[in-house]
Automatic annotation (TrEMBL):
ATP-binding found in the keyword field: yes
Record has ATP-binding as a keyword: yes
Keywords: Amino-acid transport, ATP-binding, Cell membrane, Membrane, Nucleotide-binding, Transport
GO cellular component term of the entry, any: plasma membrane
Name of the molecule in the record: Polar amino acid transport system ATP-binding protein
Pfam families: ABC_tran
Highest taxon in the source lineage: Bacteria
ABC transporter domain boundaries: 27-259
Primary location group: membrane
SMART domains, alphabetized: AAA (SM00382)
Entry's Gene Ontology molecular function annotations: ABC-type amino acid transporter activity; ATP binding; ATP hydrolysis activity
Family affiliation: Belongs to the ABC transporter superfamily.
Topology in membrane: Peripheral membrane protein
Length: 263
């Protein structure tokens, strides 16, 4: 069963959203396999994230990191294995029902350019959660307050910076009150000077007790924010553990090689 953020024991990382608590669920991925034709992209991935904790997934391009997130959210259907939230398998549930429980933030924002910021957030609330227009607007504005963009509610995405667009995408996902959040390289499409603000927001969400799986190339973020880090290569988790051990005493030669190139 989901637990509130206040039930979690986690390190104090400073900051924190504060104004919002989360119904956080545990996430367990067991033996997930997925292939595109003859190309096996995931080869038996295991990853367990306790409720309210953050797991960062690192690794070279093409290692299966983004495919793993899409399998968790069932944007791609696994060929084998199981995915459990709060101890219950999600592979037999309706994918649309699952996406009410899992929020996902993509690299390229995926906002509707012809709709206002407010409409981008209220649309799924009205279509999926069946909220009234007023209820959806109230929920959306609360999330825009959280990401400090209420004044942009009437703007179109094209009039925002990349960092602001990504914060809107995060607000849209949070408005659905998910139990787990997935971030797929959320800062990789941003100009360098815009990265810090988005990472700070993600760190605040982690401190507030959101269960998060973050695919990232930001090693400093992974080291400082994650409860655990998983290194993927060729469709498997090669090594995982607490950040300090993984970054300073890696056991796998492949991880050692990777870190020597990125740190």
């Amino acid at each position: 069963m989901p637990t509130t953020a206040e039930d979690q024991t986690r390190p104090d990382r400073g900051g924190g959203v504060g104004v919002q608590s989360f119904e956080a669920a545990s996430l367990e991925v067991s033996g997930i396999e997925l292939a595109f034709g003859k190309n096996k992209v995931l080869r038996g991935v295991d990853l367990a994230v306790p409720a309210g904790q953050t797991a960062c997934v690192i690794g070279p391009s093409g290692s299966g990191k983004s495919t793993l997130l899409r399998a968790v959210n069932r944007l791609l259907e696994p060929d084998a294995g199981d995915i459990r939230m709060g101890g219950e398998s999600v592979l037999t549930s309706n994918p649309d029902q699952l996406r009410r429980r899992i929020g996902m933030v993509f690299q390229h924002f995926n906002l509707f350019p012809h709709k206002t910021v407010l409409d981008n957030i209220t649309l799924p609330l009205r279509k999926i959660k069946k909220l009234t227009k007023e209820e959806a607007a109230d929920a959306a504005l609360a999330q825009l307050d959280l990401v400090e963009l209420r004044e942009k509610a009437s703007a179109r995405p094209g009039n925002l910076s990349g960092g602001q667009q990504q914060r809107v995408a995060i607000a849209r996902a949070l408005a659905m009150r998910p139990e787990v959040m997935l971030f797929d390289e959320a800062t990789s499409a941003l100009d360098p000077e815009l990265v810090k603000g988005v990472l700070a927001l993600m760190a605040d969400l982690a401190s507030a007790g959101m269960t998060m799986v973050v695919v990232t190339h930001e090693m400093g973020f992974a080291r400082q924010v994650a409860d655990q880090v998983a290194f993927m290569d060729h469709g498997v988790v090669v090594e995982s553990g607490v950040p300090e051990k993984l970054f300073t005493a890696a056991e796998s030669p492949r991880l050692q090689q990777f870190l020597s190139q990125v740190l």
